[in-house]
Amino acid sequence: MTRKIFIRLLGIFVLLLAFHAVVMEFVYHRGAERSVAEMLTLWGRDALWFALIVLVVALPVAAWIAGRVSARLKRVVGFARSLASGDWNVRLPQSDEEQLSEMEAALNQTAERLGQNFEELENRRHELAVMLDSMQEAVVAINPEGVVRWSNAVMQRIAGTQIRVGRPLVHSVRDPEVLTCVRGALERREVCFGRASSLAPGRIFEINATPLASGGALVVLHDVTAIEAAQKSRRDFVANVSHELRTPLTSIQGYVETLVEDPDPQPEITREFLGIILKNATRMGRLTEDLLLLAGVESPDYKLSRQAMRASALVQDAIDSLGGLVADSEIEVDFAGAPDALVMADPDAMNQVFGNLIENALKYAKSGRRIRVGAVLLASEVEFVVQDFGPGIASEHLERIFERFYRVDKARSRESGGTGLGLAIVKHIVQAHGGRIWAESELGAGTAFHFTLPLAQAAPHAPSTDD
């Protein structure tokens, strides 16, 4: 570009030299006919006129060239300012002149390349934001001064509207463990770990604060509430099983040792001790069977063989199959009616459900002397009920009676031989059928256990647990 401008200016200079030669030739011919004094005067006047003519010609040409270059440079400056403001679509207009066209083309190519790079970076930033927002962990980035630079959607849900970009993290998060880990990552430049229990009510988080190369830190909070609950449930389950097994084992061991150490046991005492041993062994056997059954229904591999069955047949079969147990208890079982609607159910699993509920009702129905079993048709399901008229259950126990080993009256339950797993088994079987289960009770008026099963035509919406 510079070479072309130089050539053009050189051409103008050559033209001026040629013009100067013509003028000098004309002056020479005129001076040859005059004296020296006149010739000097003439040359001085002609030189003055020549300088004026050159000045008159050169000034407009120079102004025109400077104006064109200045206008193009102003467009280049405006183009650069537009790029600096983030307008990547701006382009310099193309012209027929060659002086600045190559530079303009190069700048346009640079702007296009910068726009493509910026668009690619923006797409990557958006993808990264979407990926971080889809994480289950809460993530927040802070600068070296402890000010929030970015946070994902999970962190915003945990901290609420308090956490905002440009606001110090200490103003949004008050958990001391989080702040300690952040301070360690910022000041000591090392990865810090911790556990936060006061960041959100009832939730526990594992903290991972990592220093960034820019001087800030990235904090990741992993919600371990469910893991902690599962571990606690496992510990409680092991403790309960150990307790339930230790009681009959201790009894069996004590009576067996007594019989072994007695050199001349009396038949009556031996028979009594053996009866107690048999009772405790039976209790242990029932507990083992219920534990295996509960493990089966809680397993993801638990399968049901569901088929269309009439609700009335389910209720009647349950009453008939427990006829001997009901007769021995001298408690009356009332059939409260049931619709002939078809429900999707596994017959064996339903026998287990009704058996546990009716057996549970028999334990507490002695004061009421009767049990009521029936069903009613709802919009898309059938609601079954097993009701006793015993002492009832206090309201504070209703939400927990379906937990494993939970007993309202521990002494009475153990005396009656209960394992504390029956209602937990019932709950998992009903839920595996796609139904719901709950209890209603009034002190002194008895307890009613309700559960639902989907109608045959509504069965495709139930969980897929069939073979």
Task: Give the topology.
Elements: H1 2-32, H2 36-84, H3 101-133, E1 138-142, E2 148-151, H4 153-159, H5 176-187, E3 192-196, E4 205-211, E5 217-223, H6 225-261, H7 267-298, E6 307-310, H8 311-321, H9 323-329, E7 332-335, E8 342-345, H10 347-364, E9 370-377, E10 381-388, H11 395-398, H12 410-415, H13 422-432, E11 437-442, E12 446-454
Parallel strand pairs: 7-9
Antiparallel strand pairs: 1-2, 1-5, 3-4, 4-5, 6-8, 9-10, 10-12, 11-12
Helix pairs in contact: 1-2, 6-7, 7-13, 8-10, 10-13
Structural class of the helix and strand makeup?
alpha+beta
Q: Separation of termini?
A: 81 Å
Low-confidence stretches: 459-467
Number of strands: 12
What does this structure look like?
The chain is α+β, with helices and mostly antiparallel strands and 467 residues long. It has four domains: 105 residues, no CATH class; 89 residues, PAS domain (Beta-Lactamase, 2-Layer Sandwich); 63 residues, Helix Hairpins (Orthogonal Bundle), CATH 1.10.287; 155 residues, Heat Shock Protein 90. Helices cover 55% and strands 15% of the residues. The chain has a five-stranded antiparallel β-sheet. The protein has a five-stranded mixed β-sheet with strand order 7-9-10-12-11. It has a two-stranded antiparallel ribbon with strand order 6-8. Helix 6 runs antiparallel to helix 7, helix 7 runs parallel beside helix 13 and helix 10 runs antiparallel to helix 13. The two termini are 81 Å apart. The C terminus is likely disordered.
